[in-house]
Amino acid sequence: MALLAxxxxxxxxxxxxxxxxxxxxxxxxxxxxxxxxxVGESGSGKTLSxxxxxxxxxxxAIITGGEVIFEGExxxxxxxxAMQKIxxxxxxxxxxxxxxxxxxxYTIGDQLLEVIEIxxxxxxxxAKEIAIAALERVKIPDAREKLSAYPHEFSGGMKQRVIIAxxxxxxxxxxxxxxxxxALDVTVQAxxxxxxxxxxxxxxxxxxxxxxxMGIVAQNADKIAVMYAGRIVEFASKDELFKNPKHPYTKAxxxxxxxxxxxxxxxxxxxxxxxxxxxxxxxFAPRCERCMxxxxxxxxxxxxxxxxxxxxxxxxxxxxxx
Length: 322
Fold this sequence. Notes:
- This protein is α/β, with parallel strands linked by helices.
- It has a single domain (2-90, 172-316), classed as 3-Layer(aba) Sandwich (Rossmann fold).
- The protein is built from ten helices and twelve strands.
- It has helices at residues 46-53, 80-86, 108-120, 124-137, 143-146, 156-169, 186-203, 214-220, 238-243, 248-256, and strands spanning 2-15, 18-31, 35-39, 61-70, 73-74, 91-94, 174-178, 206-211, 223-228, 231-237, 302-304, 310-312.
- Helix 3 (108-120) packs parallel to helix 6, helix 4 packs across helix 6 (156-169) and helix 6 packs parallel to helix 7.
- The protein starts with a strand and ends in a 10-residue tail after the last strand.
């Protein structure tokens, strides 16, 4: 049974000159102890779709349809006060930039203790021990002493560990990791992802991993949703997707992985469309090496396969759902 189910999610933006849809009928499920990677280029809708789970969208964004089911409730229908009890405590966010979640005017300890008091109702010595244990789990040395440090005294990687510790201190069931290693060097990236893998293995936490890095996906995901122009164009298990990618966009993303034995970096020609572009057919058609006439006129239906994978591509129109 799914811990989280997103169904037919549609999100758009109101601009001065009209409305533009950014996310189209997005749906996915997340099981307990599972890591779902949502991948795609910048602007594909992966962050927007995930932030809708927490109801943390830009002011001019509008959810025009769909459901986000968690613990039997549609989170999109909950008032803000009820959502505040879920954010952090049950579903936690690790942002790209940890400083967006850390207040530079307060110590790490003050901020951890506040979160623990709000979401667990613990205070004093008990809360302090929970905070120390959380910092130790994310491998911050001298955790007790670090409680009195300020965010500016931490490196980028250490700040990201503090954010993860906050999620652990609240016993979150789901962590949404939004490009959690983008601003970090390769060595620190590996350390952060190792911490997340260990947490998942020990605590059975579920993770939504938002990234454009297919190398990170290969090492950490159980299932993968590939997004392009606000749509999930392919969904599969990690093993199936890397072994047998179906959508031309997925194949192009996999080619972008840098071969350490080569000095050539593959790129995808062209740019993704803007949400304000008027598109009749498949949005990837102008960049697709296998584009057919129908691709420019009609958006493809979803094709489902026996292994659970799905694809939206006219190349599979002649294949029945299996």
